[in-house]
Design goal:
- The chain has three domains: about 210 residues, no CATH class; about 160 residues, no CATH class; about 120 residues, Orthogonal Bundle (Arc Repressor Mutant, subunit A).
- It contains 17 helices and 20 strands.
- Strands 2-3-4-5-6-1-9-15-14-13-12 form an eleven-stranded mixed beta sheet, with helices on both faces. The protein has a three-stranded antiparallel beta sheet with strand order 18-20-19.
- The radius of gyration is 30 Å and the shape is elongated.
């Protein structure tokens, strides 16, 4: 078996199967009404029936909650662990998990002191000098209760409760563990990869399972274990509307591509790390994350853009940062290529934090993985790129006999169109005629583009498959083929054609041109050969 010669060869011919899945998720668990001082005051006055604005009465609830946690551990014979400073909680979890034999249950409850946001009471004075209590937000080091458990559907997970009011919590789960259990229940044979699948009898069936994981399943997991574990709020509190809600704190979306042999993965990273260190540049980020970085005529870089190569022993990994989001690409256990996008702030993409927004966030994360691989594939596959160039360059004759011109290399308007396409946000709303017309006018340095001319260009782009119309709208979205073609043709013109012609034709270059020197040497050698052959005029 020959070694692959490029990234495109690896992805096309050496991937045994692939699976996209939500990976690790960290969710904020909170009572919405109790996240501000006014809501807390309302709880004290209406729910507890107290007239004063003080957090002191909440101490009894805190003591009762802590006692209930201790009692639950004792009654259910659940180990209690006081975490030491610097102790890795995951290591403790794996020790208990190795001894756990039940289908589901609590592994242990851990306690750690951590800094967190909370409410405190401070004394203030009115206009007459009289003191009165006032509730303010503050930070403090308080006890956190870590409940590590195994769920029949989700496998290992943990809930971390703050012991102070309003008892916010965090839920950590793993989508791959959920998918493994659903696959086993469906009778699909597989062997496990750490946090993934190594082999699979039915990849399509596993992918369909992974696609099902969404807000409903995660919410059901939380409600199930809130009913099992001690609850800081009484039944009367919950009946009055003080119920936990879920938001997304951090979400990982992964694409696992199992390779035919370990050397294939090493070849992939040799090419990727050598030639993709510019992937974190704003123009590349606009392709991968679907973000429009142009505002009017000025380049806007709203956040951090960075590419890093990190080596753990002899295993390298590629990291690409955009604002609070990171794409990590690495060779997993020598068997699979793992590409995963970690989103730490959903508002980087104009999406809310509520769990109901998970499907939209999933589309962005998985699309970013695919686009990164598309950029890498295109950068390393000149033969297929040439075919793509020809398909867009040539005119198309429609079924009605109409001739739709191609996007000719060197044509200024065609080049501006391709550049404009790369700047648009593709998800979720796409772009309209006026959006492209305004950006194209800026690129061409003119304001004389009419709506009719823009419609003509939109038809060219659509017929050549670079864009598609969003159903029941007058908006368009760049296709995956359009993304690849626009990137290739723009690179050919801006990085190869124009610089090369400038080197060949500049009569007075500021520095010696390697290309022009080579051209002159070639011409002299050809002239000498024709003279020696007696063919000179």
């Amino acid at each position: 078996m020959t070694l692959p010669r490029s990234v495109a060869d690896v992805l096309t011919d050496h991937v045994v199967f692939e699976v996209e899945c939500i990976d690790r998720m960290y969710c904020n668990i909170y009572v919405p009404q109790l996240q501000h001082a006014g809501g807390l005051l309302g709880y004290i006055q209406r729910q507890l029936g107290l007239p004063i604005a003080s957090t002191a009465p909440l101490g009894k609830i805190t003591d009762a909650f802590a006692a209930a946690m201790r009692r639950f551990a004792r009654d259910q014979q659940v180990p209690w662990v006081d975490f030491g400073k610097g102790q890795r909680k995951d290591d403790v979890m794996h020790e208990h998990l190795a001894r756990f034999t039940a289908e589901e249950g609590v592994l242990f409850i851990g306690r750690a002191q951590e800094k967190t946001h909370l409410f405190r009471t401070e004394r203030r004075r009115d206009a007459h000098g009289e003191s009165y209590p006032w509730i303010v937000k503050a930070t403090g080091v308080v006890n956190q209760f870590y409940v590590y458990a195994v769920d029949a559907d989700f496998g290992p997970f943990f809930l971390k409760f703050c012991s102070y009011f309003p008892y916010n919590a965090k839920l950590c789960l793993n989508g791959h563990e959920w998918a493994k259990r659903q696959a086993a229940e469906a009778g699909i044979g597989f062997t496990a990869l750490d946090n993934g699948f190594a082999t699979c009898a039915d990849p399509a069936g596993v992918q369909a399972i992974c696609d099902r994981l969404g807000p409903e399943q995660i919410d059901a997991l939380l409600r199930k274990w809130l009913a099992i574990l001690p609850h800081p709020f009484t039944a009367a509190d919950r009946a009055a509307g003080y119920r936990y809600d879920i938001s997304i704190w951090q979400a990982e979306f992964s694409l696992t591509q199992v390779l035919d042999r370990p050397v294939t993965g090493r070849v992939f990273f040799e090419h990727v790390i050598r030639d993709n260190l510019d992937t974190g540049r704003p123009d590349q980020i606009s392709l991968i994350f679907d973000r429009r970085l142009i505002h009017g005529r000025r380049l806007r870089t709203p956040g951090r853009f960075r590419t890093r190569v990190i080596t753990d022993g002899v295993t390298p990994s590629l990291h690409i940062d955009y604002k609070h989001t990171t794409i990590k690409q690495y060779h997993k256990e020598g068997r699979a290529l793992r590409t995963e996008t970690t989103i730490n702030d959903t508002r980087d993409f104009g999406i809310g934090k509520r769990l109901t927004h998970l499907p939209a966030l999933r589309e962005i994360g998985l699309s970013a993985n695919r686009r990164l691989l598309g950029v890498q594939r295109l950068s390393h596959n000149p033969i297929r790129a040439a075919e793509a160039f020809t398909a867009v360059h040539q005119p198309i004759i429609t079924d009605t006999g109409a001739r739709i011109p191609g996007l000719r290399l060197g044509d200024r308007r065609a080049h501006a169109l391709l550049q404009a396409l790369l700047m648009f946000r593709l998800l979720p709303a796409g772009f309209a005629n006026r959006d492209l017309r305004r950006l194209l006018a800026d690129l061409l340095g003119t304001h004389a583009i009419t709506a009719g001319q823009m419609s003509y260009d939109l038809r060219r782009l659509r017929v050549h498959g670079l864009i598609t119309r969003i159903p029941r709208s007058h908006r368009y979205r760049l296709t995956e083929i359009g993304l690849h073609h626009a990137m290739l043709l723009s690179h050919i013109q801006t990085r190869l054609l124009l610089p090369g012609l400038a080197q060949l034709t500049d009569p007075d270059p500021p520095a010696p041109s390697t290309l022009r020197t080579a051209a002159r040497n070639y011409q002299r050698a050809l002239d000498q050969l024709t003279q020696e052959a007696g063919l000179a005029a």
